[in-house]
Amino acid sequence: DLQKPLILFVDSDIALDKFAIAHLVYEMASRPFCEALTGLITIDSDGLLSLIQNCEYIESQALHRGTESMMGGISCLPGALAMIRFESLRLVAREYFAQLPSSNAVSFAKRSLGEDRYLTALLLESHPRSHRVGF
């Protein structure tokens, strides 16, 4: 349903393919039970380090996330590129954006050091049976 708002998360150093947003919107429209999804992120530069990073990204994204998505939900929406239904984010926003006491190191690490994985877990927990997070 394209009448409901979608939120796009993109890192400031990302250069999107000209069809990336249209493709994400199309996928969200064609998967009404998908609460959020991501796409393939690659490095667009030359050199050995970039080649190594691209190999790692392709392995971790295409293989791992692709397999997880086929099984019903990926375990981590990358903060660099994700599209989430506004209503789904609204449902978990209170817990996700809650201020934590600094004395609670475990909770601080859980939410602050892996905020993209934490948000993904909240989305999956909020719709345990009929909804998914895809790639």
From TrEMBL:
It is an enzyme of class 2 (transferase). It comes from the Eukaryota. Keywords: Glycosyltransferase, Membrane, Transferase, Transmembrane, Transmembrane helix. GO terms for cellular component: cell periphery; membrane. It holds the Pfam family Chitin_synth_2. PANTHER family: CHITIN SYNTHASE. This is chitin synthase. It is found in: Membrane.
